[in-house]
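User: Run a structure prediction on this.
Assistant: Running it now.
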Amino acid sequence: MKLPTGPGAPASDAVDVLNEASRTCRVQSMSAEVGVSGKVNGQRLRARLLVGVAAPASARIEAPAPFGAPAFVLASVGDAATLLLPRDNRFVEHRTLDEILAALTGVPLSADELRMTLSGCWSSNVVAVRAIAFGADWRRIIVEPDHGLWLHREDGNAMWRVVAVTRNIEHSGRRWGAQYRDFQSDIPRSIHIASADSESAGTYELDLSLSQVETNVPLGADVFRVDVPRSAEPMTLDELRHARPGVREN
């Protein structure tokens, strides 16, 4: 997707555009099968994941195996995330979801960001700082704390839709962007995620393919809980970063 370039012009319709875009895709919970392919720090990765997310900040990601126990199960509620590797009988806990996801896949997303990134549905509750117009059918809206949303409509009679997002956290160097394609029922089925950091900060470029998508279905509290066996041994993020179970391409 080629996004508009140039300075654009100030726009005063940020709230209306965001409200219209969010009305078409209100997502409080979502489950999907997600195919992942791409590279992290030059290493090829490929995975099939089962993902469930729910507002305000709950997530579950599982990497099923062709047979037997899954490669990993990751669940998070709020700031508390736990990863279990059933085949290795090891676990990571007392970490946030974005820390574990960064070590596992290279992509640092919180549970709330994961829900909005997968659904392409960015809440109308975000605070718009300013909006820039690129003609009548493109808007770039900067929202707090550090996201830029690109919205597009096919023509003046079509609904606004979020087609890309960028994130820039200057103090941590975690900068990334996502683009959305192949919308069905206002949910994207193809997502391209890429870092915008220097190589020293780590780079990644991943294509996500969504199927079996269900939105706004009840997901009980037990979905976002991982039972760690007493016999399991703890694991560090550095060990996880080198292992990347379930996502490393053979």
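The longest strand covers residues 29-40.
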